[in-house]
Design a protein that fits this description.
Helix content: 25-40%
Largest sheet: 8 strands, parallel, barrel
CATH topology: TIM Barrel
Strand content: 15-25%
Radius of gyration: 18 Å
Order of helices and strands: EHHEHEEEHHEHEHEEHHEH
Shape: globular
């Protein structure tokens, strides 16, 4: 059986910070991360989607967390075909036209895509050197569908990432339905990429099926987005507003165990917002998975 690690997607969400979950002595960035890492062995860094990570920040994250702690780091928007704010790019990559301008990869000119990947991998380098880079999460947009172009894009990501661990989340159900599912899992196995299993509200045009397949022997990833009926529409708070019950989490605990039979490490991340909903759900999941890797030092209360 592989290791199972449970955590949340972000430890800096403003609603979590203001919820009272962090104790009075954890009011600084360092204090919050150290407290979080005393409760869970895994977290996802999502700020890197908006701005390329800096090596100094990654070094601080590594220093402020105990041995064995893991960071899944979300790929920058440009790396998965999303538009991005120019202000989130270093000066050498930022096109002329102002920091508020939205840019796409094509705006960066020849070599721009490779330069973004180099900057990203350099920024997370200290985490990788410390053995704390769990995965680079490639969350593709709903318009990224299956087919030759999509397969070529995934292969290009693997080429640019080198040996970095990659996990792929699709927001287009076409990758995971009908005859396409076998082609998708086969492609990811060939590229050494982990398929991210997702939990969302079902029965909606934007729903993604809860496919949990181990496509990489080293890693499997589960992301639990909640069951909001506003999934795919409305504000971020509406899309991810949900409080998981033990009954809703139990099937995912069983899936995590099955994934651990095929992968050396399974990451289970809760991505619900609004106050302490994510950390509470992650705690419930940890209780459902007593075999999961414990946090280094879980404080009382």
């Amino acid at each position: 059986m592989g290791e199972i690690l449970v955590g949340t997607c972000s430890w800096t969400d403003p609603s979590l910070v203001s919820s009272g979950w962090y104790p009075p002595g954890a009011r600084t960035a360092e204090g919050r991360l150290r407290h979080y890492a005393s409760r869970f062995p895994l977290v996802e860094a999502d700020t890197t989607y908006y701005a390329l990570p800096g090596a100094e920040r990654s070094r601080q994250w590594a220093e402020r967390t105990p041995p064995g702690f893991a960071f899944d780091v979300k790929a920058h928007a440009l790396m998965t075909g999303h538009p991005a704010a120019a202000r989130g790019l270093p000066g050498g990559l930022r096109p002329a036209g102002g920091g508020e301008r939205r840019v796409a990869l094509r705006d960066l000119g020849p070599g721009g895509e490779a330069a973004v990947w180099r900057a990203f991998l350099g920024g997370v380098g200290p985490l990788r050197e410390a053995g704390k880079l769990g995965a680079v999460l490639l969350q593709f947009p709903p318009w990224f569908g299956p087919g030759g172009g999509g397969a070529a894009r995934l292969a290009r990501c693997r080429e640019l990432a080198g040996g970095a661990p990659l996990a792929v989340e699709f927001r287009n159900a076409g990758w995971l339905t009908g005859g396409e599912l076998g082609r998708t899992t086969g492609l990811l196995r060939e590229l050494g990429m982990a398929l991210v299993a997702v939990d969302t509200a079902q029965g909606m045009p934007t729903s993604v099926p809860p496919v949990a397949e181990a496509t990489c022997g080293e890693l499997a990833v589960v992301r639990l987005h909640g069951r909001s009926p506003a999934w795919g529409s409305g504000s971020k708070e509406d899309r991810f507003r949900h409080r998981y019950s033990p009954a809703e989490l139990a099937p995912w605990a069983a899936r995590a165990r099955r994934l651990a039979e095929r992968a050396a490490r399974v990451h289970v991340l809760v991505n619900t917002c609004c106050a302490d909903a994510a950390v509470r759900a992650a705690g419930l999941m940890a209780d459902l998975l007593p075999e999961a890797v414990p946090a280094p030092a879980r404080p009382a209360g």
